[in-house]
Design goal:
It comes from Glycine max. With 124 residues, this protein is mainly β. The chain has one domain (20-121): UDP N-Acetylglucosamine Acyltransferase, domain 1 (3 Solenoid). The protein is built from two helices and eight strands. The strands form three sheets. Strands 3-4-6-8 form a four-stranded parallel beta sheet, covered by helices on one side. β3, α2 and β4 (81-87) form a beta-alpha-beta unit. The longest helix is centred in the first third of the chain and has 8 residues, at 24-31.
Length: 124
Amino acid sequence: MPPVLDNVFGVSVPESRFLPLDATSDLLLLQSDLYTCREGVLTRNPARTNPLNPVIDLGPEFEKFGDFQSRFRSIPSIIELDSLMVRGDVWFGANITLKGQVTIAAKPGLKLEISDGVTIENKV
């Protein structure tokens, strides 16, 4: 059987040049104000003083790209966020700021809507 692809080669890129995009949790990081992408170069916001990225754990309701997009009117500001865990039927309004350690959980069978302009800091 002939090769499927001719002249294939791999390129090794250091992880400092990109962020892996394995889940919608990673997409939230990339679409947030934590990074900007100009002319193909990913740059971290200098306003972030913590050298580590926030740990983001979105529940299964956010797993599919379409569901992820529909649940955010706009991506929250996460420059001062350390960790975020979201569970249940949660919907985010516009201009939301998340700081510190935040856990948001909707009770089973209930829809939780985060209002526009809210700042959530170190809350469960």
